[in-house]
Amino acid sequence: MSEDGTERYRVGDALAELRSLDESAAVVCLDDAWARPGRQGAFGVEYPTHDFETTAEIVDVAWDALQDGGWLIADADDWLAPRLETYIREEFGDVSAWYEGGGYRRRGGVTYVDVGGDPDTSTPGQYLSNGGYPVIFAHKGETDRRTTASARQVARHPRRVEDGYPYGWGSVKPIGPYRAWIEGLTEPGETVVVPCAGTAPAAIAAEQLGREWIAIDSESEAREAYLQRRAAFREENEQTTLVDVVADGGHSVDAGIDHSRLQGGGSDR
């Protein structure tokens, strides 16, 4: 096994790679950017995608890869989130409604803020700016994996605090939220699987926490982007949660944050 984890980052079709796993996962972290159908060509975005045609396909196989009681953490967007919630409820159960069994548990998310703790509106759209993204949480059957970590994390956007962004690869997400969730829901040595990984922030978090991990993407360029990001993270010890960083000339540094500013101001933490 190479020190940089190259062999753990598999280049191939996500469905085939998930089906070939020799072990089940404690957590699967699924990125929406490559999971959502119809992404290619939208708004001029062009990059290769996996062969599966619907989100349901990857969700089903990711669910099969979980061990009993394991958690699915699925990034989403405004289009995907309600559809994914409905699908999980109908196919796997709605524990949020019945307080027993498994299936859909909660909608959380990541809220991007600027250095002062205000909502980040540096990339506004024509019809309001997102300033983050929703995340769907579900677990496979009854689970003893519990944590008080917030489902709603506040973070700096990586492009504001990480050197080398975007590592030549698409939309890069922060590491901090996945570190909080993985730390709360797994134990050292357990396996985290990251399909459709891109720069694989969840895999970087898992490695930092002493968890085993497997990442998957269809493009070798994604693995190269991950290696660049991992190297920058290890060299700079970059953090991307609000409690860890402020911007300092484009670099991240440890500093105190006035958390009282998060009471209101659009923050949901």
Q: Class, according to the CATH hierarchy?
A: Alpha Beta
Please tally the helical runs, counting DSSP H or I stretches of 4 or more residues. 9
Number of strands: 10
**In percent, how much strand structure appears in the residues?**
15-25%
Roughly what is the average pLDDT, rounded to an integer? 82
Question: What separation lies between the terminal Cα atoms?
Answer: 39 Å
| N-to-C SSE string, H for helix and E for strand | EHEHHEHHEEEHHEHEHEE
Task: Summarize the biggest pleated sheet.
Answer: 8 strands, mixed
Total domain modules: 1
**General shape:** globular
CATH topology: Rossmann fold
Given as residue ranges, the uncertain stretches (5+ residues, pLDDT < 50) are: 239-269
Tell me roughly what share of residues is in helical segments. Answer: 25-40%
Round the Cα radius of gyration to an integer and report it: 18 Å
Any idea what the CATH architecture is?
3-Layer(aba) Sandwich
Please identify the structural class as seen in this structure: alpha/beta
The CATH superfamily is identified as: Vaccinia Virus protein VP39
* Order of the strands making up the biggest sheet: 1-8-7-2-3-5-4-6
Fold and architecture overview:
This is DNA methylase. It comes from Halopiger aswanensis. InterPro entries: SAM-dependent_MTases_sf. By secondary structure, this protein is α/β, with parallel strands linked by helices. The protein has one domain (6-262): Vaccinia Virus protein VP39 (Rossmann fold, 3-Layer(aba) Sandwich), CATH 3.40.50. Helix content is 29%, strand content 21%. It is built from nine helices and ten strands. The chain has helices at residues 14-19, 32-35, 55-65, 80-92, 95-98, 158-161, 176-185, 201-208, 220-236, and strands at residues 9-11, 25-30, 66-75, 103-112, 132-139, 152-155, 191-194, 212-217, 246-248, 251-253. The strands form two sheets. The chain has an eight-stranded mixed β-sheet with strand order 1-8-7-2-3-5-4-6. Helix 7 (176-185) crosses helix 8 (201-208). The longest helix has 17 residues, at 220-236. The termini are far apart. 45% of the residues are buried.
